[in-house]
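=== Per-residue structure ===
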Amino acid sequence: MPGSASLESLTPDVDEIDRARAQEYALLATLLSRSPDSALLSRLADLRGDASLIGAAHAALAEAATRVSEQNAEREFFVLFAGLGETSLLPYSSHYLAETLCGRPLERVRESLQELGIQRALGRSEPEDHAAILCEVMAGLADGSIAASAGTTERKFFEEHLSPWMARFFADLERAEAADFYAAVGLLGRVFINLEAEAFLVNPNEQYRLSTGRAAWNCELAR
């Protein structure tokens, strides 16, 4: 599977809007795959916001990053995504769409990944319908590091594998009892996925220029 995108890894001729979109997806993929360390929290605290919906979400995430420690973020991540209690969340399309794990939604994701020529990375245990993996793929499609196929375009991948459920997952994360820092991650994810859905429904580039302005984050991520 692809790793999180950074400014250096993005294809140089990518449109500015698609570059910003890829960075948003890479950020969400990183925060859903591991808890942020102190270096990442420091970079997130420098996020700039503005009056747009995505800008306000960036500002909220920056504020959350300033008040959480690396240790508390790690504990929060464990309770939300690795624990076995009622406070844990299941960020899988099969859970949200089929009320099971490893169901038909996962099979459809695997079929699309095969069409894109993406193979599961060695040592990666999460099913491919995990929200972090889907966001990684969207980052690659947006920045051009993953070539769309005739059968699986960026829009088709989003509409089939993210749009039907991921905004609901982020809304659940936003209001989860155990979420503090991750409530802001949920807010950003919910706003961004909804903007993506609107953009693909109307005119992707023009819609995004109206929606995001200059709020796109500019922090480099690495696993």
Notes: The chain has one domain: 16-212.
